[in-house]
Amino acid sequence: MELLPLKGQHHVSAITANAKENLHFYTEILGMRLVKKTVNQDDTSVYHLFYADEKGNPGTDLTFFEIPHAGSTYEGTNSISMTSLRVPNDAALDYWLNRLTEYKVEHEAITEDSGRKAIHFRDFEGQRLQFVSDEHNKGVAGGKPWDKSPVPAHVGVVGLGPVRLTVSRPDVSARVLVEVMGFREIAGYTEQDQTIRVFETGEGGTGAEIHLLERNDVQRERPGRGSVHHVAFRVENQEELMKWVDHITASGMPNSGFVERYYFRSLYFREPNGILFELATDGPGFEGDESFETLGETLALPPYLENQREQIEANIKPLHTAKKD
C-alpha cells in the first residue's frame, strides 16, 4: 500500500471562552474571514468557529471551540505551544508590528525563527501565536486573503505556518513523525538557549513544518482558554485517508478510525506524548451548504445534525455575524 505524503498543515483547533471577543479579534484585528459558524459535532452545545483565507482553503484554517467556563491555561510541556500565521513577506511584518501596537495586542519585536522573520504575539486569552514571513518560502503555497477584510490583502494572513510542539520526550514524538507519518527532519535552530528540531512533509516550506522543542523543567500543560486542542494535517482525498486509517492502525497506534465531518473527513490519534493529531481531507470544503459570498453568516449544520437545529440553537448563545457588504 503506497501512501502519498501528508501535504502540510490542514487546520489548528484551539479553545476560547468567549466567542464574541474571539470573533472580534480574529476578524476585525487579524483580518481573517469567518468561513464557517457551526458547532462541535461531538458536543453540539459548543460553537466551532473557522477563520481562514477567503474561502477556507485547506492549510489556512485556525478554528476555535467556545467553552464558556474554560479555566486558565497553565502552560507546560506535552502541548501544542505555538501556532504560526503566514504573511506574504518581510514588509508585511512591519505593517503587523504597527497594527498590533495600535490595537494594544501583547507582542514582541521582529525576530528570526528558523531563517524566517517572525513576530510572537498573544490574543486576548493568551493564545500563543506568531506571524511568520513567507518571503523565502519555496514549499506549499499559501491561500488568498479575503478582499473584504479590514486588513489589506497584500499584507493579510495567507495560511498556517509552522506548528510548535513542546514535549518531554522528543525522540518518541520524532519517531512517530518520521517513521509513521513520513516527515523528514531537516534542520534545527536555537531560541533562548533551547534547541528546536524542524521536521517537514510533502513539498515542505512554511506551511508544512513541525517544530519540536524539549522541555523537562515544567509540568504537563493544563489546557484551558487560550490553549490548542489539536493540529490537523492535509490528506488529498477520502481514498487516501482510508489508506492512512489502515496504516495508523497497523502501526499499533490507537485511533478514531474514519470520522465524517461533512466539510472534510478525518482520522484522530495521539502521539506518545499525548498530543492529539488529526489527518483531514482537502475537501469537500465549506461551500456545500453556503455560497462563497455568505460564508460564516448563519449557523451552518451538517445534514446529519439538521434535524436537531431547534434544540441546538436553543442551547447556544446567539453570535451575531453581520451581513457583509
UniProtKB/TrEMBL annotation:
The keyword Oxidoreductase applies. Pfam families: Glyoxalase. GO terms for molecular function: dioxygenase activity. SUPFAM superfamilies: Glyoxalase/Bleomycin resistance protein/Dihydroxybiphenyl dioxygenase (SSF54593). InterPro entries: Extradiol_RC_dioxygenase (IPR052537), Glyas_Bleomycin-R_OHBP_Dase (IPR029068), Glyas_Fos-R_dOase_dom (IPR004360), VOC_core (IPR037523). Residues 8-134, 159-282 form the VOC domain. This is Ring-cleaving dioxygenase. The lineage of its organism: Bacteria, Bacillati, Bacillota, Bacilli, Bacillales.
